[in-house]
Amino acid sequence: MRNRTTEERDELEMRRKARLRRQKKQRKLKRKRQMLAVLFVFLLAAVIGGLLWLLTSIFNRRYIDLSAIEAPSWVQQDFFDRNPYSRPGTKMAKVNEIVIHYVANPGTTAKNNWNYFNNLKDQKEESGSKNISASSHFIIGLDGEILQGIPIDEIAYATSKEKNMNTVSIECCHPDETGKFTEETYDSLVELTAWLCHSLDLTSKDVIRHYDATGKDCPRYFVAHEDEWKQFKKDVKKALK
User: How far is 61 from 177, CA to CA, in rounded Å?
Assistant: First the structure.
């Protein structure tokens, strides 16, 4: 075997190094592809898991016949007269959430606010004027009394056009501008919300503020004091047990 020249040895060495570099690069690409494949599998599993959870939560909710729900004895049913402005009589197929409000009229009673909603029926149609549409399923007074103005299987004009179609609303009276509820109002709100959650197959996670739906400063005290809102939801969860 002949001896290779210096140039040939250098050429072979260059080829060897180039081959090693290619092999190293190929190993890095292979590891990168493997890592991407593992990441893709994890992401796919997370997406599929999320979809399965969503579908399960939707289809595993038991069917609720809203018209068959009977109010407890501590709720006074006094439905508004049917009218276009506060009780249109539009049926709801299901309830997805419970919305908490405050009346934004300090010192008024549950009956005062009931009268306001019911009297909206007396508005006259006038060209160029915009009539008021407003109502709520329930109104809780300063002493904790609860009036029901709209059946649970009908919509109320309380939150927003979209939310009104699948939510139950509760208006709460308050003694001053802070919007803080009396102890009696608060206790009734917890009890009523827990009963609705139980009757509608909902949880405390399905209880929201008007603020959460539209950004409106309602109920004012629970918007200004996030910790009090969280405590309220904890109290509802406790009452459900």
Answer: 39
